[in-house]
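User: My instructor asked us to take a sequence, write out its structure as tokens, and then describe one feature of it. I'm not sure where to start. Here is the sequence I was given:
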Amino acid sequence: MAKMKIYEIVSSMQRQFPDLQNKDVVTLLQENGFDVKGSQSVIEDDAIGFLLKHAKEHLANLKKSEHAKKKDTKKAETPKKKEEKAENTSASEKVAVKEKAKKEEVKKEVKNTVEENKDTKSEKGQEKTVAAETEEKVVTAAMDQAWDTMMPLNTTSNYTRFICDQIYDRLTQTNADGSIEGRLAESWTVNDASDAVTFKLHEDAVWSDGEPVTAEDVVFSYQMYSDPSVEAKSRYHLEYIAGVDDSGAELSEDSIEVTADSDYEVTFKLKEAMYPDTFLQDIDTVFIIPKHIFEGKTAEEINAPDLWANPVGSGPFIYDSEINGERMEFTKNENYYLGTPNIDRLIIRVVPSANVLSGLMNGELDLIGFGSVLTDDWETAKSQDNLVTESVPTTSYTTLIFNTQKEYLTQEVRQALNMAINRDVLVNGLLMGEGTPIMTPIAPVSPYYNDKVQVQYDPEKAKEMLAEAGFPAGQTLKFFISSGSSITERCAALIVQDFANVGVNVEIEQMDFATLMSRMLDGEHDLGIIGSGGTLDPSESREMIYPESSCNFCQIQDTELSDLIDKGNAELTFEARKPYFDEYQEKVVEKAAMGYLYTKNLLTAYNKSMKNLNVADFNCLNWSSWEWDKE
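Assistant: Let's start with the prediction itself. The structure tokens for your sequence are:
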């Protein structure tokens, strides 16, 4: 259960409501039966939710009240001024003026009575409105990490993508079975040479401010993503498009070859012929941005948070309010082109993984948007009458990051450490068997999985290899992990023990997810842990092993691995691609830039009142939240 002081909430909300003051919030809560005394008062979820929902309306009423007071003051001054003027007239004129003044007073009294009646009716109407609002369909979804930005192009966090997917659209999205479906794109065609893709957009898509979504918005969005002066951690998703370098940055101003053929058709020219599904999956987290909002803005303005604070999007929900790092609320987009959402209000809450099940059990949460039920809680979750539980095998994997640029972490040392990890213990101890040990990023459920690559565990051989490699005695490795995830903490502790068993000391350092990403990109770590949703297409892992990528946490500097992926992608059939990806998996183990640990089943639960959820797709960042319903 969240608890915050009123002044803390006001501080976090002033970005959206600059005029909001502590006293306004205290008054609003007191008038609605909440026991608060002042800005130091601590309030919980019910009051926080009420405040987020009604702050905007309350501020509007305050402004209206102030305007009415000023108007009444001005009216009150009018008879007085008329009497002063009357003193300078004749006696008869004075009488006439006084009579007129009396009539004015009578009129005013009558008008005030009418206004009071209107206010009474208005109050009753507001009561009816509040009563109606209590009947709206509200769904609360949990995720165990906070979003790191409101700028959709400047993130690699899937928690942030869950947020952005409610506000914005993308051309395509991927299903759990690997198939690709259109989102903003109604359809697409690939040319005979397999080096260009043309998308036809939904013509009834509109931005939340009423402007139409067109091909020009798509072109503008990809130009923004590729502009190196714009902060865009997701830029690497543009790597296959002509006119950009391998990091996705434009070669010259607006050189990216994305062209509007008409108002609702847009063509992407690729660098070379390639397997089209690889490209389509790669761009399925590139969100489309409104050109009419951002056109003409400088990079400095785009990089600043202000333009993104109250977003205009074309997604299924419209941003309403937030408490930064705690929760965000949305209202349904009545004009969503794929259908008006079935639920009226969506609340996304950041809930520590240890508290997720209790929230589902007591009804505070309806589902898990991104994350999982803890394995320790899984048996309890399955026994709850009010919950539906599903264990779904996925491509999602967890990997140990080695900083390949540390001189004491040579390839031989990395191979030895990789061999020292007991992956069976990780899967059975952490996941209760709900996962699979792996040595590469390609999951056993993928058709590209190379079953000849066997899981290695040999601590005695690992000791010998470390000695032969000359690993320095007394060297302590810095192990970076994100805070807030108990399974990550326990996984790291087990790896530390495995390394201690072969004579290697490790020191764990915890930090928030955004800091973890930043510091690993800067190469401050020796070791780190990170996860990926993976995909059925093996090209997904390229982003983590390409030197110029913004996800190159292992600091790899050669292209041996990415070259194999590129060769596979140049082939246009599965049969021609498979040998390259078989070799790729063998090379992954040999180079040991990362120690892939396990894939994990998606352990999810949701309230039985929820309908139209395809939770298997969630792991592919496909939520289709407009289809959700609640009984």
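For the description part of your assignment, you could build on this observation: The radius of gyration is 30 Å. Try explaining in your own words what that tells you about the chain.
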